[in-house]
Amino acid sequence: MTKIFHLIDDENNNNNYPCTLFNPEERDKRYKTQDLGLEFAKSFCISTYGSWLLMRHPLRSLYVVNLFTNERINLPSVESQLGMVKVERTLDGYELRTTSPNEKVYKGISIRTPVFWIDERTNDYVVIWGLRDLCVVYSKKRDTSWTQLPKTAGCVDVVYKESKLYFLGLSGCFLIFDLSGETPQQIFQSNSNG
Q1: Quick one: 121 and 193 in the same domain?
Q2: What is the CATH number for 177?
Q3: Are residues 118 and 185 in the same domain?
Q4: What is the pLDDT at residue 194?
Q5: What is the pLDDT of residue 97?
Q6: 68 with 135, same domain?
Q7: pTM score > 0.70 for this model?
Q8: Same domain for 116 and 194?
């Protein structure tokens, strides 16, 4: 069961446990977290999965951190993209550049619909996010770059199991990708919106 935690104010806080969390399904239980460091304090959460947070640092580096174990997974640089869209950091977000013959540049782009999934036992994970309506990218355990998913425009939710990515898109489209090779292969598609 996935726990959804909410941050609550704790007037009796001390420096060892700077924040208190609770899961609404466990009304009488509170969880105290340890100090996760200065970088955590300067970052902000863009998605959650159980006790794991997908964080973005102001310099736009992405990482995943477990609130209770302090375990951290650094993700590849946003610029390390494989596919037809290249990303560069700018002061106001990101700049996208298509690598097609009719090159286009899109400025002031931000990360959209970030979603991730992690296996609590093995720490296998997949992180997915979109940039505008141009691309959705993913990175999984042991990847050193982000790979673009073909024919996707936004993500609502994902599950990753045995090298298969089960993907629900914003348009209601359900896709299954095989991620066992160097490039993702779509192996199933169903449209729920008729």
Answers
A1: yes
A2: 2.40.10
A3: yes
A4: 54
A5: 79
A6: no
A7: yes
A8: yes
Q: How many domains does the chain have?
A: 2
Looking at the fold, whether 139 and 63 belong to one and the same domain comes out as: no
Assess contact for 50 and 2: CB atoms under 8 A.
yes
Q: What is the pLDDT of residue 193?
A: 63
* Domain containing residue 18: 1-74
68 shares its domain with 10: yes
Query: If you search the block for the tokens 């959650």, which residue do you land on?
Result: 48
Beta strands in the chain (DSSP E): 6-8, 19-22, 31-33, 44-49, 52-56, 62-66, 72-74, 81-82, 85-90, 93-98, 105-109, 111-118, 125-131, 135-140, 146-149, 155-161, 164-169, 173-178, 185-191
Where helices occur in the chain by DSSP H, the ranges are: 38-42
The answer on 117 and 69 residing in a single domain is: no
Mean pLDDT by 10 residues, the chain (194 residues): 44 51 70 65 82 80 85 86 72 74 79 84 87 80 88 78 86 90 91 68
Mean pLDDT across the chain = 77
Distance CA 60, CA 89 (A): 8
Whether the Cβ atoms of residue 87 and residue 79 lie closer than 8 Å to each other: yes
Dist. CA 194–CA 191, nearest whole Å: 6
Is 92 within the bounds of a domain? Answer: no
Q: Mapped to the 3 state alphabet, what secondary structure does 16-47 carry?
A: CECEEEECCCCCCCCEEECCCCHHHHHCEEEE
